[in-house]
Structure prediction request, 182 residues.
Amino acid sequence: MRIISGDYKGRTIKAVPGMKTRPTSDKVKESLFNRIGPYFDGGAVLDLYAGTGNLGIEALSRGCDTCVFIDQSSQAVRVVKHNIKNLGIMKNTEVYRNDAKRALYIMGNRKRSFDLIFLDPPYAKEQLSNIVEIIEEQNLLTEEGQIVCEHHSETVLPEDIQSFRKSQAVTYGDTGITIYTY
Prediction:
């Protein structure tokens, strides 16, 4: 895996060994960032279900200021820490091992808010609508923010989830991307 654009363009990042994670392909990542950016003038990112940290690191490379990476797998957390250390971006990041829902409540209690939230759960465990509801309940997305949901292409997410509206939905082979905004 490599970083496609920005400050760390061309640098490689380590993958999580085994078949438990499904990193976003370069083709999908490039198309995704062309839709949501492609570059940023600062901002805070939450990479929930971080896996390798691929999406959050790409957002940092393209100009976001900070990123919180969360994954419940200790192996994934070790890989994210390795990748951010290797890139020298540890001061701009926080990495936590936690369950996604529990982590969202903790972020809400800490009054955190994010300009960009990536949700890329294991396809077999998709609960995206419920996770998006918690994001709103905990007031985790800034007014101009975006929630990017990566899911199986056969999964169709609702047009509206509470105050969020689907702004874009595209498929790339087996991968679907749905973006929500206020």
In short: The chain has one domain: 26-181. The domain at 26-181 is CATH 3.40.50.150 (Rossmann fold). DSSP finds five helices and eight strands in the chain.
